[in-house]
Design goal:
Layout: H1 2-23, E1 45-47, E2 51-54, E3 59-61, E4 73-79, E5 86-87, E6 101-109, E7 119-121, E8 134-136, E9 140-151, E10 154-162, E11 169-171, E12 176-183, E13 189-196, H2 199-206, H3 222-225, E14 228-231, E15 234-237, H4 238-244, E16 248-249, H5 270-282, H6 338-344, H7 362-374
Parallel strand pairs: 5-16, 7-12
Antiparallel strand pairs: 1-2, 2-8, 3-4, 4-6, 6-9, 9-10, 10-11, 12-13, 14-15
């Protein structure tokens, strides 16, 4: 009897060990060259069709004010090989070492009734969906995961589109078009032609310096990351978490680092909220070094509100691109400002940003419009 009990105990222990091994994914793999066909080859994220989880040392993060992408929610992560870290910078993107992999997974929460092949929920894209650093795939629909990979030659972008069963994503270098229906809380529906960018389009946004002509991260800057995040181990400031994980060196105390406003925070100063929104959505192109510098309109935080920030500035574009408005920003008159006109448009020949959206961001346009209406002064 004792021998049988010992044998049963040994078999039980063996089964537990084997089960634990089966659940442990292989470590993250960095590809110094080549273009892996499947997202799963990187071992950053793991999906069984029911849950999407992060591998060991894959650290999630978020931004104070996220960049708008057709109401898609985003799971952002960063991974680095052992023994290296990013170098802190107070204003620009951190200097990430070779071997860094930054991922951004775009997904939509599902409306009542679940996934039917098209319908997704229009909801606040900054609202958290993670639970213990995992996504419940019964409640969301995965669309794409973009990787930004730091190789010896510089950053390279990889767009992956998720398969129908949400178990893996396939590299789509030429991009993809995903037809969806955005359904709001009242049940009203709007068609959405969700565009997964091709590799060249990724470069058009991430080329933040016209002289360097190289890809750079946009979101991982001190002012965007200086906020708390609900990690699996508890709530913590992201800059401090990155430092503790060995992923960031040289950062000051969070209280001493710059911090962008949360554009959704109705209690915050409206100018700070509007500027934070314009900085993350427009400032990487509309800056003194960015691809849109020939416009003379600079919407990053380095420029104080004035002529170069668009206030009483006549637009470079003419005709249809201005909607016959005379100034980029006309104080006290949002409806008469080119900036708001182009934000609200869905005409490809008019709308701004030119890439990354096919519907207008109602809440963002409302915020910027209220800020413009609050400005005092005259362009006469």
């Amino acid at each position: 009897m004792r021998r049988t009990a010992l044998r049963v105990a040994a078999l039980t222990l063996l089964c537990l060990v084997l089960a634990a091994c089966a659940r442990t994914p292989p470590p993250v793999r960095f590809f110094a060259e080549g273009m892996p066909a499947k997202l799963s080859e990187w071992h950053l994220l793991a999906s069984d069709g029911r849950t999407l989880s992060l591998n060991a040392r894959v650290l999630p993060f978020d931004l104070n004010t996220p960049l708008f992408s057709d109401y898609a929610h985003k799971l952002r992560t960063v991974w680095m090989p052992p023994g290296v870290s990013a170098t802190y910078a107070p204003e620009t993107a951190f200097d990430f070492p070779v071997g860094t992999v930054i991922s951004k997974t775009f997904y939509f929460p599902l409306p009542d009734g679940g996934w039917d092949g098209r319908r997704v929920a229009r909801s606040d894209p900054a609202a958290p969906s993670l639970a213990g650093e995992t996504l419940d795939l019964r409640r969301v629909r995965l669309i794409e995961t973009r990787l930004l990979v730091r190789r010896e030659s510089g950053w390279i972008a990889f767009p992956y589109v998720w398969d129908d069963d949400q178990r893996d994503a396939t590299l789509q270098r030429i991009g993809a078009l995903v037809p969806l229906d955005l359904v709001d809380a009242s049940g009203a529906s709007e068609e959405l032609a969700y565009q997964v960018p091709d590799q060249n389009q990724c470069a058009s946004c991430h080329n933040t310096d016209n002289l360097a002509r190289t890809l750079q991260p946009i979101g991982p800057k001190a002012r965007h990351l200086n906020r708390d995040f609900d990690y699996a181990g508890g709530r913590a400031n992201q800059l401090e978490k990155l430092t503790a994980a060995g992923y960031l060196s040289g950062a000051p105390a969070a209280a001493s680092a710059p911090r962008a406003a949360d554009a959704r925070d109705a209690q915050a100063d409206i100018a700070a909220r509007a500027r934070a929104y314009l900085d993350i959505n427009c400032g990487h192109c509309h800056s003194a070094k960015g691809p849109a510098n020939t416009s003379g309109l600079f919407l990053d935080v380095a420029h104080e509100p004035g002529i170069h920030f668009g206030i009483c500035k006549q637009p470079v574009a003419a005709g249809k691109g201005t909607g016959n408005r005379l100034y980029d920003i006309k104080p006290g008159d949002a409806a008469g400002s080119v900036l708001l006109y182009r934000m609200e448009s869905t005409d490809p020949a008019v709308m701004m940003p030119e890439l990354g959206r096919s519907v207008a961001h109602r809440e963002g346009a409302r915020l910027v419009g209220e800020w413009i209406d609050s400005l005092r002064g005259s362009c006469e």
